[in-house]
Design brief:
The chain has one domain: MetI-like fold. Helix content is about 80%, strand content about 0%. It has 10 helices and no strands.
């Protein structure tokens, strides 16, 4: 306990160092036309990066919660189906999943949709009608839902059995037990690893550049190929991601600290 308090009370020298690096980078942008030009180019991709991250993570969290409930279900078929999904998805690299969803699963899904809706007289859907941006979002959703499902499962299982039995004794339905008893207690356990997954998705969102989605990484590759200023360009790319991830980490630590105070 004393060691934990000592670590929590350590002066954040790492943050001071990062702040110094950020200040140096800001000075470079202000004083160097090259850095300023690179930043202006890459800034256009920040919105895409944030959009992909937020939408994919929200969808992955929703799907992950459903999978976690299925993993804890009393029905063996649901448990086994959810476990199959989780193990298969976690065993495939995210970049492979991106390529598979974009160039294999999407055309197959479009063909299946056209086959089902053909007799209804609807206009056929074309593969190109499904944007690469949404293919990337779907792939990240599938990839992260498997990891988030395990986070939710562990958090839900951490709730004491006595709490559930007390809720049953009060006559609460299973939905009421989950909403009022189980999930509020599990959330405190779930939040730290869930926050880590969110930060990880910010970084993994850079993989969508392999599909040509104009996020920060893709614009960085285009800019570097045009100006041959690889050092300056990738310095700015790295700094943008670093600012986003460190800022999120600090916010999440603050939230976790408040939750610990409330629970303490």
């Amino acid at each position: 306990m004393n060691r934990d308090r000592a670590r929590d009370g350590d002066f954040p020298w790492w943050l001071v160092i990062l702040a110094g690096v950020a200040a140096w980078a800001f000075w470079q942008v202000q004083s160097s036309a090259i850095y300023a030009q690179v930043l202006a180019t890459l800034a256009k991709g920040i919105g895409i990066t944030v959009y992909v991250t937020v939408v994919a993570f929200a969808l992955a969290a929703a799907l992950g919660l459903v999978l976690a409930v299925a993993l804890l279900s009393r029905h063996v078929v649901l448990r086994q189906a959810a476990r199959l999904y989780v193990e298969v998805v976690r065993g495939v690299p995210i970049i492979v999943l991106l390529l598979y969803v974009a160039f294999a699963a999407t055309p197959a899904a479009v063909a299946a949709w056209n086959w089902l809706t053909g007799p209804l007289g609807l206009d056929p859907l074309r593969t190109r009608d499904v944007s690469l941006l949404w293919r990337a979002v779907i792939a990240l959703t599938i990839a992260y839902s498997a990891f988030i499902a395990e986070v939710f499962r562990a958090g839900l299982e951490a709730v004491a059995r006595g709490q559930i039995e007390a809720a049953e004794a009060l006559g609460l339905s299973r939905w009421q037990q989950f909403r009022y008893i189980v999930f509020p207690q599990a959330f405190r356990t779930i939040l730290p690893p869930l926050g880590n997954d969110f930060v990880a998705m910010v970084k993994d969102s850079s993989l969508v550049s392999v599909l040509g989605v104009t996020d920060v990484t893709q614009l960085g590759k285009i800019a570097a190929a045009g100006n041959f200023r690889y050092f300056e360009t990738y310095n700015v790319v790295a700094l943008i991601y670093l600012v986003m991830t460190v800022s999120l980490s600090l916010v999440l630590r603050r939230i976790e600290a408040r939750l610990r105070l409330k629970s303490g």
